[in-house]
Amino acid sequence: MPEMPEVETVVRGIREPLTGRKVEQVEVKEAMIIGYPDSIDEFKLELKGKTITGVSRRGKYIIIELSQGKRLITHLRMTGKLLLKPRTEPVHKHTRVIIHLDGGLDLRFNNMRKFGRMYLLDEDESEKAGGFATLGPEPLSPEFTVESLADIMAARTTTVKAILLNQQLIAGIGNIYCDEALFRAGIRPDRSGGSLDKEEIKALHQAINKVISAGIKFQGTSFSDYVNALGEKGSFQEMLKVYGRGGEPCIECGSIIAKVKIAGRSTHFCPKCQR
DNA sequence: GGCTTTGTTTTATA
DNA sequence: GTATAAAACAAAGC
For the segment A151-197, what is each residue's pLDDT rounded down to a tens digit? Predict the structure, then answer.
């Protein structure tokens, strides 16, 4: 499940190989994947002939910058993979879009469940790429401070779980890093945002930054099927303390890790370590 | 064949 | 308009 550290790992893996390449041909095998423009022919026509000028990331979105002010924005959702493959390699059955580049290189968008999306947009049209335009601050960025987190939590009656997963409030946190950050901060996921005191907010701020940067360092979490652009797994799953460990003993205190549903998502926490 | 999975959008309600 | 909760949606594996 690609969250910010997984997406960042993909971006780092494709930046060098892609920058400077020219799009020679585009194949769309599944029309549903293209979120914008509405016409698949227009998508292909607009993309063809463009040169890739850079690759960046915002939240869980991958931004491939193109000549003439165009941007190809990709969201992997649950099972999406952006893969670099030689043109000669047989096409996988879950490959939905193929971008043929010069030098015999393919950028292939694999998507088992067809949830992922690609948007081809001008720079000033980002509001057409789902929630891209309304993303909150990035963890690890100068904008994400203890004070900004305090503002986000203040007076909110909903659960911290729901707040951390809300991309408009903080960008890039998904279910795994959410549960892990709350464990490390010692905060129960069902607490309301407004109930957190100053110390807890400080601990949570630190835990989010720590868990996200560790996730990037270990090149993501390959819990089920995440791989980077070269098909390699990450290793942060070995560092998980609560996610996926429901019913198992807590690493810190030995209590049984609880698995419940909060904000409609499976949520893992230690009833003793988290208050 | 129902249940589970996740990120995001949409809808309903207060 | 805002905050919140819940539902909808995408599809496939088990």
Answer: 999 888 999 999 999 988 999 898 889 999 999 999 999 999 999 99
Block residue for tokens 């949830």:
A115
Protein residue closest to C7, using CA and C1':
A264
Helix, strand, or coil (residue A166): coil
**A248 in active site:** no
DSSP string covering A154-197, please?
A: TT--SBHHHHHH-TTTSSS--HHHHHHHHHHHT--TTSBGGG--
**Helical (H) or strand (E) element with A106:** strand A105-111
Q: How many CA atoms lie within 13 A of A159 on its CB side?
A: 16
A3 is annotated as an active-site residue = yes
Residues forming a β-bridge with A217: none
For CA atoms A130, A132, A134, A139, give the dihedral sign: positive
Check if the beta carbon of residue A201 is closer than 8 Å to that of residue A150.
yes
The C-alpha atoms of residue A136 and residue A211 are separated, in whole angstroms, by: 18
Tokens coding A77: 């959702």
Does the pTM surpass 0.70? The reply is yes
User: Which residues have a Cβ under 8 Å from the Cβ of A199 and sit 6 or more positions away?
Assistant: none
